[in-house]
Design goal:
The protein is an alpha+beta fold and 250 residues long. The protein has 2 domains: 70 residues, Gyrase A, domain 2, CATH 3.30.1360; 150 residues, Cyclophilin, CATH 2.40.100. Helices cover 22% and strands 26% of the residues. The chain is built from 5 helices and 13 strands. The strands form 3 sheets. It has a 7-stranded mixed β-sheet. Strand 9 and strand 10 form a beta hairpin. The protein is globular.
Length: 250
Amino acid sequence: MAAPGAAPVKIVELGDAALTLEFGNRIDPVLHARVIAARDALPRLPGITDVVPTYRSLTVHFDPRRLAAEELSRHLLAAANAPQQSALAGCNAPNGVRRWRIPICCDGDCGPDLAAVATATGRAPEEVVAVLCGQPWRVFLIGFLPGFPYMGELPEWLRLPRLTTPRTAVPERSVAIAGAQCAIYPWQSPGGWHLLGRTPARLFNANDSDQPALLAPGDAVSFVAIERSEYDRLELAITSGEFSSRNFSV
């Protein structure tokens, strides 16, 4: 049963070892808030092996030898009615949201597409940077690469299609936009998003077995513009181990 005023949910079987709780069929901060509320309300039942939130659904992988699908389904339907966080679109709930202040440098080669994006949108580069740094961004999901956060949503005037010809190598830790979303590339990889800046923060640490990805679905990320000299200082401190990217949590 759905919460009062909410769209009905449904459960879809994914083989014999995963169930997906679906809240809708679109990218919507309200749906995503329901996903995160369900994730946080779901008991950590013996037999659950992974919990994967997306824009509009929650997939739970489980060991059917330890947990019956029927039992998990009952718990998922109960979790679907969990109270949602307040101020959904802005990620401003007073409790339950991890908040981050991630530094970003947009100077020179750190933001190679900033000028082109400003021209395409008819705005000054400073206005584009101001949008990036002017609001908290909801982390919808982690995908594409381990630790790669899909965040949103951009204002209509800043929504651009992906590059016609993708880059073969996007520098690691690049902050980029495409469509209604922004993201951070954890490592160097091919990519077709518009690169507006770069952060010294490390988005993935394979040596951290408990939580290798810095960000998680439901987190709120605020970007803070820094000059190149501060970027270089923080990059050196993080590389040397004198400073941790987790210190950007607030």
